[in-house]
Specification:
Elements lengths: L17 H11 L10 E5 L7 E7 L2 E7 L12 H11 L9 E5 L2 H4 L3 E5 L18 H19 L17 H16 L8 H9 L8 E3 L8 E3 L6 E4 L6 E3 L1 H9 L9 H5 L13 H12 L6 H24 L14 H15 L1
Antiparallel strand pairs: 1-2, 2-3, 3-5, 4-5, 6-9, 7-8
Length: 354
């Protein structure tokens, strides 16, 4: 059995029109689908934001990305932005898939989309693939590789990537805090906490610092592709939220997903990666390595930790609200309603220790 990430049957309500896609590609990107070829389409199972499909054309494979069905948050699903980021990073940062073509005509598939290179490798989700085990030493090396690839992005020369005008680093932290607070209030349903005290705590503690780097904004285990040995990352996926901003915030958002072995049981229940296994680095060990690899001095780490956790709660709540309102049929999202409470409690633990 292979551990290479495999596409599956398309989920109910998320099918795309193969005939329309084929017709558009033959007109705008004929090298993708020659006149004698047909597109076979399957869907990758992971992801709770943009949808990812495998396109098989004869012996070649590509990946298509499009926004989720029923989404009302256009800025979080900007295909042109994601395609533009990959285009600028190509040749400068070694881990971005090569973008191939971008379609702005929503009449083709009901939304903008783009096609990119397929990276064949292993994606680590909540648990390791069935036929994969990691020794404690191998688990430590996996963590180090994950951290080092993120640090490499933060250390990438902005001008060399042609991204000097991409985003507004000045005032970035304040905009993020107030923006995510507003998003939570707008997405809140009656069955989740109001989090008002938490939001006020964040607003009162915004650091007076401006850092400027290329940031991914959703860097985590299931957004990277490993080779089959799990020794090396061969690519980073899901660039829709990339921008210029504070790299420490980017790292903190990554650590929001990092559930370690000594975390409380409610956190273990919402674990999204095997970060609890023997040998996996702790959050403090990851922070120490991040400081070493980037040279960043971080004097207010509790603020960043709390922000990362709360931001993850908002993302989960936005998805949960789509499920509650019947705008997605994906049953995975029913459990997302528990996340704001669990993540909010984790924030409270950090705040009490400061």
């Amino acid at each position: 059995m292979t551990s290479i990430d495999q596409a599956q049957a398309i989920r109910e309500g998320e099918a795309i029109d193969a005939a329309a896609l084929t017709h558009w590609c033959r007109e705008h990107a004929p090298t993708l689908v020659p006149e004698s070829g047909d597109i076979a389409i399957r869907q990758f199972p992971g992801g709770a934001s943009n949808l990812t499909y495998l396109l098989a054309v004869d012996e070649r494979e590509y990946v298509l990305r499009r926004p989720p069905f029923g989404s009302q948050v256009k800025s979080a699903h900007d295909m042109g932005r994601e395609y533009g980021v990959l285009s600028r990073l190509h040749g400068v940062y070694d881990y971005g898939p090569e973008p191939i073509v971008h379609c702005t005509d929503e009449a083709v598939l009901g939304a903008e989309f783009y096609v990119m290179q397929r990276l064949r490798g292993v994606i680590v989700r909540r648990d390791l693939p069935e036929n994969v085990t990691l020794s404690p030493d191998a688990a430590s090396r996996l963590c180090e590789q994950l951290l080092d690839v993120q640090a490499a992005l933060h250390n990438t020369d902005i001008s060399a990537a042609g991204m000097d005008d991409f985003g507004k680093p000045e005032g970035y932290i304040e905009r993020q805090v107030t923006g995510w607070n507003t998003r939570y209030r707008n997405a809140r349903t009656d069955d989740v906490p109001d989090c008002e005290a938490l939001m006020q705590w964040l607003e009162a503690r915004i650091p007076d610092v401006t850092r400027r780097a290329i940031i991914h904004n959703d860097y985590k285990l299931d957004n990277v592709v490993f080779d089959e040995s799990l020794e090396h990352i061969i690519g980073v996926l899901d660039w829709e939220m990339a921008t210029l901003g504070d790299p420490v915030m980017d790292f903190a958002c990554s650590m929001a997903y990092w559930v370690q072995a000594d975390d409380p049981e409610p956190m273990q229940q919402i674990r999204m990666g095997p970060t609890h296994l023997p040998g996996m680095l702790s959050r403090e060990e990851m922070l120490a390595r991040y400081r070493d690899k980037t040279g960043q001095s971080i004097d207010d780490w509790p603020f960043y930790q709390v922000f990362g956790l709360f931001r993850l709660a908002v993302i989960a709540q936005q998805i949960y609200k789509r499920f509650v309102e019947g705008k997605t049929a994906d049953k995975r999202f029913k459990r997302f309603g528990a996340l704001p409470g669990v993540l909010g409690d984790q924030c409270d633990r950090i705040i009490r220790q400061t």
